[in-house]
Structures are given as C-alpha cells and as structure tokens.
Amino acid sequence: MSTTISGPKNAAPDSPQRNRPQWDDLPIPDDTANLRQGPDLHEQCLGLLPLVGVWRGTGEVVYPTIDGPFHFGQQLTFAHDGRPFLTYEARSWLLGQDGEIIRPAARETGFWRPQEDGSLEVLIAHATGIIEMYYGPKGDMRSWEIETDAVVRTPSAKDVQGSKRLYGLVNQGDLAYVDERAMEGQPMQPHLSALLHRVVG
Fold first, then answer.
1. Strand 86-95 relative to strand 189-200: parallel, antiparallel, unpaired?
2. Whole-prediction pTM value?
C-alpha cells in the first residue's frame, strides 16, 4: 500500500512513532495501530483507514434510568493484521467532578468487518454480558453510522434492546461518537458521547 500518512494537526506530538504494545515473538503478524508499521492495510479496509490508531479522551454518560450525567475517560484502539477487518477495543474509567479517576468502567472488544460494497458489519462484546451485531452503510472516510440488528444478553446483563452509533472525524482530526440505546424499557435515546484525540498512529 503506497499511502502517504500525515497526521492531524492536533494529534499527540509523538503519535507517528507510537504503536499499541507488540508481541515481537508471534509467529504471525501482530496487530498494528500505526499504518507506518506492520503489514499493509487490506484494500477492503481503506474506507476505515482514518480510524486506525489509538484514541484517548473524555465523554459523558446519561440515561433516564441512572443518576447523572457521569463523566468518563476512554481509550479506543482500532488495529489490523493485514486481513479485511479491524480489531476494536474500548477501555473506560469513571471520572469524578474534578476529573480525578475513580475506578475502571466499561470495556468492549470486537471486530469491524467492511464488506466488498463498503458496507459494515461490526461485532462488539461487552464485559457486562452483552454481544451486539451492528450493520452500517458505506461511510465517507469521515463518518460511520452503525445500528444493531441483533443483541444477545446473558441472564445477568442489562435489558438492552438496541443501539445506534455514529462515529465522525471533527476538529481537524479528532474522533467523536454518540451511542444511542434502547434499554430498561426506555425508547432509543442518547446514552454515551465522547471526544477523543489521536495518541498513536
């Protein structure tokens, strides 16, 4: 892949030299969150190219069934191993009123699977016992919208019925997203939102 990589103006100064932790002794290519390192990005993933990296920032959680709003810190990682999908991981931590870290919070992991026509299949598993299957139309390399087609829950998980997510590049290269949820008997409405800055890639 002969793509010239130039980072956004507001990325972390050392983001082009950084990557996610690597396992150098793997007998196969390790995932990379830096397009300057590791295997070439699969052609089918070119529509997701701007997402590849590690992003960190803060957000807000609201919903009628919880006290709030609450604020959280978050890190998202989009990486690849040269095959036609991105690996995805989200780690969050709850913040206090003065920005102090209170405790670890939500975790997600999954795969973004672009199809030959540019549409998206996204699989996300939550540490809280929920697995979601999302579909979305072809993005425009600046925004990606996905909506659940199926939600599977363990007996101990919250009663989540569906979700819609919109991810978009803003402010000359930051990543923002909104997650709407229908759960606990409530109609679809905003639940999470965050603004993240690139720290790797």
1. unpaired
2. 0.92
